[in-house]
Amino acid sequence: MSGAIAAVFVAVFTVVAILLRTTSTGVFFQVSDQIAMVGIGVLLACGVLWLTWPRVTADAAGVTVRNLLGRTRYPWESVVGISFPDGAAWARLELPDDEYVPVMAVQAIDGDRAVTAIRELRRLHRAAVEPAAGAAEPQG
Asked: What percentage of the chain's residues is helix, strand, coil (to nearest 5)?
């Protein structure tokens, strides 16, 4: 869907750029104005596509969160929990010392897909952390 929106931005701004020189508006547009108009369309398209950048991937060792400005890997041992606070736009990883990391890839608007993603992240977290807690208890 976002690819189609990006393509529409580029197409619309390209058409406007072409029409700049053919329409009599009383203003004289140059080729540089046309190039700038297409450039604006490309920048808007890139902005739309940038919103699809967030991802979250998890395995038995940890979770990787890729938000708009970067990617960070967290081992499960450093994650206290996974939450989705009421009214929040996206999920978050709870870290020690009351810190948290937003998980922009899991958004409230996704409905059942977000619920499934949170359940899977919690399952992986539980599987990675609980055996370690059981091993720390004395046997006997």
From this structure: 50, 25, 25
